[in-house]
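Explain this one:

_____
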Amino acid sequence: MKNKYKRILLKLSGESLAAGQGHGIDTQRLASYASQIKRISDSGCQVAIVIGGGNIFRGLQGTSKGFDRVRGDQMGMLATVINSLALCSALEAESKAAKVFTAINMFPIGEHYSKWKAIEALKKGEIAILSGGTGNPFFTTDTGAALRGVEVEADVMLKGTRVDGVYTADPEKDPDAVKFNDITFDEVYRRGLKVMDLTATALCKENNLPIIVFDMDTPGNLEKVISGEEIGTLVHN
């Protein structure tokens, strides 16, 4: 397989790890992700990963139930670390070297994140799993993914979702929703589309980091995206 991209930032949602359970971690889904990630890494693609924590705890949900926002977001950051450790274990079970980095110093759970240590791991062929968001409250894991993608000098951010791209409306609610093959960041703003939150989208736009939104839950799609096959939706300047 000839890869179109040398280094990627793969953003996975925490909810997708729960699969049909709705919460927690579905081990079959986890193993499927690990197998797909190993294949693209073995083909020579350098892979950094940011995974959300919504299957365990989401800060904003906590706020709606009376949690202090900062505490809630800190709990959400810890949820991303749990998911990252699970993914790391699944990759190691596939005989793939992986390393968990944490935005806040949490030794020995993970190595404290720095751009240079993460890039060093990537160059060695290790999967760099970047957990803990940005380390600050009031930022989503999408923003954390955009920031880390820019920092590690990724060619593209791949946003793996359960939907196969960006649509004019939510395709799960609107049967008339039309899919975009590609769309500019400016048009995303104009149409008010929820590709990612505005902070994350602005970071990608300002630093010219394109995003591909695709269905990660269909095995084989990740390899197709890496090889340059036009699936999903490309968001670009």
Summary: The longest helix spans residues 69-93. The mean pLDDT is 94.
